[in-house]
Amino acid sequence: MNGFADYRRMVMEEINKSLLLIDEREFNAFLKELLERRRILVVAAGRVLLSMKAWVKRLLHLDLDINFVGSETEKPVGREDLLIVASSSGESIFPVGAAEIAGKAGALVAYIGCSPESSAAKLSDIKLILAGRTKLSRPGEFNSAQPMSTLFEQQLFILGDIIALCIMEAKNMGEADLKKRHANLE
Predict the structure, then answer these.
(1) How much is the pTM?
(2) CATH number, domain at 103?
(3) How many CA atoms lie within 13 A of 173 on its CB side?
């Protein structure tokens, strides 16, 4: 690699290749639950949480009751709710623990990550498996030149925008509808 142009090309190619590998049936099942559940909470750690906070912000604009675990305004989950566990490895302690608790409370648990046989995946009712590396660098992971779970984090951010477009279409919403729920003190 030789500088900006090569890295830009490599990163964009990895994002494109990995997004094309998402199983559309898994995606549609996940989207259906997002639209049908009363309340949605997301749990993640580190940079993955930053990507998921972008989901929360945008999906609030789409009038979904969504928040992240640990927020000062977090509500409890129960039978009508969805917990989204985002973790490339599926082994991060806090997200796995939240999945256990949410499952016991009767919430539907959805895993988004790169490890279909992980602890988080096994605790989940539905899965959306993405191609990417984990911090564990296991054999058979997607061959990304980017460090650790960077590609997964990038996919999550973009996937959130794809989901927003799908929800806009399903709810027959336009940009004006989103602007009504957008912050106005910026």
Answers:
(1) 0.95
(2) 3.40.50.10490
(3) 19
Domain assignment present for residue 183? The answer is no
Question: What does the CA dihedral 51, 22, 94, 31 come to, rounded to 10 degrees?
Answer: 80
Q: How many domains does the chain fold into? A: 1
Q: Which has the closest alpha carbon to 54: 155, 171, 134, 127?
A: 155
Q: Is residue 184 part of a domain?
A: no
Q: What is the pLDDT of residues 118-137, one digit of tens each?
A: 999 999 999 999 998 888 77
The amino acid at residue 183 is A
- Residues lower than pLDDT 50 in the chain: none
Three-state secondary structure readout of the chain: CCCHHHHHHHHHHHHHHHHHCCCHHHHHHHHHHHHHCCCEEEECCHHHHHHHHHHHHHHHHCCCCEEECCCCCCCCCCCCCEEEEECCCCCCHHHHHHHHHHHHCCCEEEEEECCCCCHHHHCCCEEEECCCCCCCCCCCCCCCCCCCCHHHHHHHHHHHHHHHHHHHHHCCCCHHHHHCCCCCCC
Q: What range does the domain containing 76 cover?
A: 4-178
